User: Which sequence fits this backbone?
């Protein structure tokens, strides 16, 4: 026995992987072998350290292999290898520039391995790797280190957020950026932060702070990285999330189960099915979990005003800044987004725009979009008026090209959506005249401006341009000019949808009970409301449901609501009586009081607006309500995206327009409108041609593609396809016989064919 | 008309194509000029046609680089043998073609060379180098010797022992007193002979499963080299003893110590400029220091191993006896030194 063992061991000699395997299984027995190898490692290390540049790893066993070996078994002999990690670290930090690339990669890999074996901790590893990442001139090493650092940060944050580690790394990155603002090293801080932000590992204000410092750096690359992060980082994050959720949803359990039932039963298939079920359950669980709060980077900024001010003064206003036009545009976009989103006041920004507002300026549409983006309701109209005037003078004239005119008009409209007071009467009336132009883009832009001012400032328009509703509103005093700084009373988004839905539900229930649909009976409503509410709370909290006083409390609540709704019902009716007779004439039956559904559109809208505040202020929304609200909101946004035109009032549309600007950036394309100022790139042309044609992996006939699609869906072939594919020899007999048929036989066949077609096929579908 | 047809023909003649034929040289054009010439002698301006071969020193450098960096075993060996013959054939007092400080760093890595012929040739070459030059390079030579002693391949281990023997012959004092020369070398001895024990774990079994060490024939040799090494480290060298005894220059005591040092970097043990050293890498200049460290770290292991070897008898037993003698003599005065301190 013993002899045999020794014989086997002799093979160990030069075979490190074998020895490694044996040591892992039985560390104690092989400790001497390990010590020998470790001794060899030490002497090789000494040789290496004596002359790092000239040492070559020739010979049977290279230094690299020894390092690899020791790293793999280091956890078995913690006392003997206590100095090993620090050895590697010193070698790497001192000689990373002169090491040969393979050895260098091996050392990095070994350090990461030691981290995985928890011999060293993350902070130690990252503190070693990060300075090298910043300092090394080698591109491959940088790529390797970047990847290792990221993966280590991800793994150490995978189970739970490792706040301490994150904090130290974030501080290191922050210091890297702030210590030397002119150096390009900061780009690594930007890259790491952006990647971790994208993967939602860092979602806090500190990460945003790092990017803020990057955007305020002196190096062009770093500035670009920081600014791009604010402009596109959140979108990137959302896309990644969508992608990952798409991937997970791909498993079809029903199909798998079916296959498992049919195919040969083996342990493997069983296991794979179990795994799939587990995975699906996991994703289900994940779906039901509350959505993590993801504030966008722009919202997490501490001091947006200060940030916007310094960005503007440092990179844009400063004549010494070395940014080129493209980079300046990026910064400008960021500044204007900040201004628009947080309603900041950077007055000098608007005068900065003036010199760029000429049609000859490169990428002027982006400038226009930025200007519109930077406008909000708290910008003094005095600052905007010269700009609007300049745009009108430079862009919108009969002499200018139609694209230019439409871009100018669009820009003016976008500015005026945000600050209607920036327009004066003569200019507006002049601009509105362009709706008679010959170019479609210009016409549409001018019409957009017209419809905007019908809403927000009808008195600036000529009388004949005002339109019916605006004229009526002006007459009745309904439409008032908004003063500077005046704010609309806010509501909850989608609340009116909830209200509508509730009303419908109530109606449906009544119908179920057999009551008249339009029951204005108070007690009925009361009952229903009561029921609904208790139900809403039921799912939420069982304990509160059990308490007796909740029922009484709800009663009181719904009573109050009904009182208010009474008064509400009366009000619009009175108002309508005051209105001019045109409206009443058109729908005389709408006079029945207390009937919400049959009111005229404008009135309904108003009533709804009033109700909004009522519902939110008089009733506590149950969690069920909130869930429904979320759902309705989503539905509405989806239908909006699908392009279904709801019969919304104009004010709502307007509000939507204004809302869009709050969160999404305004792009140059929106300013350009229908016509394009620049030539479209090749990619755009291809995308345009591809649009609506679906995914086309390979070039096949349409028939083949259709067949492929059907196959993928598991559908069978049609009879026609079957006959086409039928073996030629099998068709021969019939074809031969056809020629020999007698007249009667032919007649019978034809008759049969007609009959069958009448019946609808051989089996027929009559009476199904 | 006739004349014009003739003229046309004539005109055409000028532009007629010559037919090319396979296997025949292209016909020469009419305006061909023969530029070939014959001459009795040619004088070429720029080219030098020195008849002498490359100088011996440049050839020496060339072979040195071949020996240190060639990929092929035979080429390395041949280059080394060339270098050896150059050195051995040179007259006694002629200086080396290249200084030792250049030769050694290039050739020492060959201690770990895979081919045994290269290693033996290397040893031959090293023995030709002047002994006085080796002392300064003992540290780097020891690095490779130690790496060889703990090497996986048994042959390399034995050859590394030969290198160490040579080092002990030419620069005994430097070998044991250079940084890391004492403790690290002893460590590699113990691990080579399988006497090392893991610092962390307590041993359950005394039965060693070491896959190398105790390599049959080589073991007595290892014992002998260890004995030599210990002798160099633990016994007082003759010149110091002479100096101690030497009352020749009576009024002057310890005169050597106050003179300008003859060796380079005399204050290396203070380690003024290098990175800090640990216990292993420390320089142990005094015999007492070495004795102390040896007693502390190695003596028990060495004695156990020695006793085992004695029991084996035969060649190993005899070698162990030599080792025991050295050990006894070397450590004889250690305890009283300890007492006096």
Assistant:
């Amino acid at each position: 026995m013993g002899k045999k063992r020794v014989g086997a061991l002799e093979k160990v000699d030069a075979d490190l992987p074998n020895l490694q395997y044996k040591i892992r299984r039985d560390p104690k027995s092989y400790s001497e072998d390990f010590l020998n190898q470790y001794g060899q490692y030490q002497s090789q290390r000494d040789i290496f350290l004596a002359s790092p540049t000239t040492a070559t790893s020739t010979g049977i066993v290279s230094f690299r292999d020894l390092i690899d070996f020791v790293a793999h078994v280091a956890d078995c002999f913690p006392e003997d290898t206590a100095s090993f990690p620090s050895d590697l670290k010193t070698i790497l930090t001192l000689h990373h520039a002169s090491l040969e690339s393979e050895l260098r990669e091996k050392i990095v890999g070994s350090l990461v391995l030691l981290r995985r074996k928890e011999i060293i901790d993350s902070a130690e590893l990252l503190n070693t790797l990060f300075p090298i990442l910043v300092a090394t001139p080698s591109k491959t090493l940088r790529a390797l280190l970047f990847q290792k650092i990221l993966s280590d940060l991800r793994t150490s944050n995978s189970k739970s957020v490792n706040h301490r580690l994150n904090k130290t790394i974030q501080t290191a990155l922050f210091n890297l950026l702030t210590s030397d603002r002119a150096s390009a090293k900061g780009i690594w801080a930007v890259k790491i932060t952006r990647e971790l932000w994208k993967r939602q590992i860092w979602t806090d204000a500190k990460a945003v702070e790092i990017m803020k410092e990057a955007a305020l750096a002196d190096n062009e690359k770093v500035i670009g990285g920081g600014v791009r992060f604010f402009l596109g980082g959140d979108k990137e994050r959302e896309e990644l999330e969508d992608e990952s959720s798409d991937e997970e949803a791909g498993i079809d359990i029903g199909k798998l189960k079916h296959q498992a039932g049919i195919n040969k039963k083996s342990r493997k298939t069983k296991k794979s099915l179990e795994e799939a079920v587990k995975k699906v359950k996991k994703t289900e669980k994940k779906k039901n979990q509350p959505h993590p709060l993801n504030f966008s980077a722009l919202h997490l900024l501490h001091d947006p005003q200060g940030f916007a001010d310094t960005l503007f003064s440092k990179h844009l206003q400063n004549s010494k800044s070395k940014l080129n036009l493209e980079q300046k545009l990026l910064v400008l976009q960021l500044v204007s987004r900040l201004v628009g989103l947080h309603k900041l006041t950077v007055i000098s920004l608007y005068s900065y725009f003036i010199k760029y507002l000429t049609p000859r300026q490169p990428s002027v549409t982006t400038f226009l979009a930025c200007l519109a983006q930077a406008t909000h309701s708290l910008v003094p109209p005095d600052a905007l008026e010269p700009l609007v005037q300049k745009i009108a003078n430079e862009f919108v004239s009969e002499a200018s090209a139609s694209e230019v005119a439409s871009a100018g008009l669009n820009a003016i409209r976008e500015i005026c959506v945000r600050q209607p007071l920036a327009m004066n009467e003569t200019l507006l009336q002049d601009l509105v005249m362009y709706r008679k132009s010959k170019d479609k883009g210009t016409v549409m832009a001018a019409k957009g401006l017209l419809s905007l001012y019908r809403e927000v400032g009808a008195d600036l328009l000529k009388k004949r341009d005002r339109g019916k509703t605006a004229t009526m509103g002006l007459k009745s005093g309904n439409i008032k000019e908004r003063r500077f700084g005046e704010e609309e009373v806010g509501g909850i988004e989608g609340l009116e949808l909830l209200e509508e839905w509730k009303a419908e539900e109530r109606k449906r229930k009544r119908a179920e009970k057999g009551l008249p649909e339009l029951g204005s009976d108070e007690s009925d409503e009361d009952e229903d409301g009561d029921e609904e509410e208790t139900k809403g709370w039921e799912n939420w909290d069982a304990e509160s449901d059990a308490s007796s006083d909740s029922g009484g409390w709800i009663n009181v609540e719904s009573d109050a609501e009904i009182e208010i709704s009474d008064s509400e019902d009366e009000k619009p009716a009175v108002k309508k009586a005051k209105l001019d007779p045109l409206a009443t004439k058109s729908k005389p039956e709408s006079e029945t009081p207390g009937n919400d559904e049959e009111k005229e559109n404008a009135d309904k809208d108003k009533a709804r607006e009033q109700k909004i505040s009522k519902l939110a202020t008089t009733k506590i929304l149950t969690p069920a309500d909130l869930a429904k609200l979320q759902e309705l909101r989503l539905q509405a946004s989806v239908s909006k995206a699908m392009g279904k035109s709801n019969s919304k009032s104009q004010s709502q549309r307007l509000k939507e327009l204004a809302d869009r600007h709050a969160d999404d950036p305004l792009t140059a394309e929106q300013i350009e409108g229908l016509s394009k100022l620049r030539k479209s790139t090749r990619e755009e042309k291809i995308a345009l041609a591809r649009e609506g044609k679906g995914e086309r992996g390979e070039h096949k006939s349409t028939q083949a593609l259709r067949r492929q699609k059907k196959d993928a869906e598991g559908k069978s072939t049609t009879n026609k396809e079957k006959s086409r594919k039928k073996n030629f020899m099998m068709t021969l007999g019939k074809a031969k016989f056809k020629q020999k048929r007698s007249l009667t036989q032919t007649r019978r066949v034809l008759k049969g064919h007609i009959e069958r077609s009448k019946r609808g096929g051989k089996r027929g579908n009559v009476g199904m | 008309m006739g004349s014009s047809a003739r003229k046309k023909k004539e005109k055409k003649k000028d532009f007629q194509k010559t037919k090319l034929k396979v296997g025949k040289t292209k016909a020469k054009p009419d305006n061909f000029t023969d530029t070939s010439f014959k001459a009795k002698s040619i004088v070429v301006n720029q080219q030098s046609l020195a008849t002498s071969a490359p100088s011996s020193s440049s050839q020496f450098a060339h072979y040195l680089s071949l020996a240190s960096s060639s990929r092929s075993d035979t080429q390395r060996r041949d280059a080394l043998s060339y270098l050896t013959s150059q050195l051995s054939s040179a007259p006694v007092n002629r200086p080396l073609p290249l200084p030792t400080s250049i030769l050694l760093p290039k050739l020492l890595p060959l201690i770990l060379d895979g081919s045994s012929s290269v290693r033996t040739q290397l040893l031959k070459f090293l023995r030709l180098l002047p002994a006085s030059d080796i002392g300064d390079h003992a540290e780097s030579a020891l690095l490779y010797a130690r790496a060889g002693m703990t090497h996986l391949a048994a042959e390399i281990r034995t050859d590394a022992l030969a290198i160490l023997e040579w080092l002990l012959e030419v620069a005994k004092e430097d070998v044991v007193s250079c940084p890391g020369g004492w403790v690290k070398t002893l460590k590699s001895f113990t691990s080579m002979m399988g006497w090392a024990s893991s610092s962390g774990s307590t041993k359950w079994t005394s039965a060693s499963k070491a896959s190398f060490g105790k390599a049959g024939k080589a073991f007595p040799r290892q014992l002998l080299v260890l004995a030599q090494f210990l002798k160099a480290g633990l016994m007082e060298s003759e010149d110091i003893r002479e100096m101690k005894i030497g009352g020749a220059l009576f009024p002057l005591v310890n005169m050597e110590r106050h003179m300008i040092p003859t060796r380079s970097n005399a204050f290396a043990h203070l380690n003024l400029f290098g990175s800090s050293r640990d216990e292993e890498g420390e320089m142990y200049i005094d015999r007492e220091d070495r004795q102390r460290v040896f007693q502390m770290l190695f003596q028990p292991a060495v004695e156990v191993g020695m006793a085992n070897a004695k029991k084996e008898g035969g060649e190993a037993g005899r070698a162990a006896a030599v080792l025991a003698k050295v050990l006894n003599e070397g450590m004889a005065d250690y305890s009283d030194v300890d007492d006096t301190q």
About this structure: The interface with chain A takes residues 105, 109, 112-114, 139-140, 143-144, 146-147, 149-154, 156, 180, 184, 187-188, 191-192, 194, 196, 198-201, 204, 208-213 of chain B (CB under 8 Å). The radius of gyration of chain B is 35 Å. Chain B has a mean pLDDT of 78.
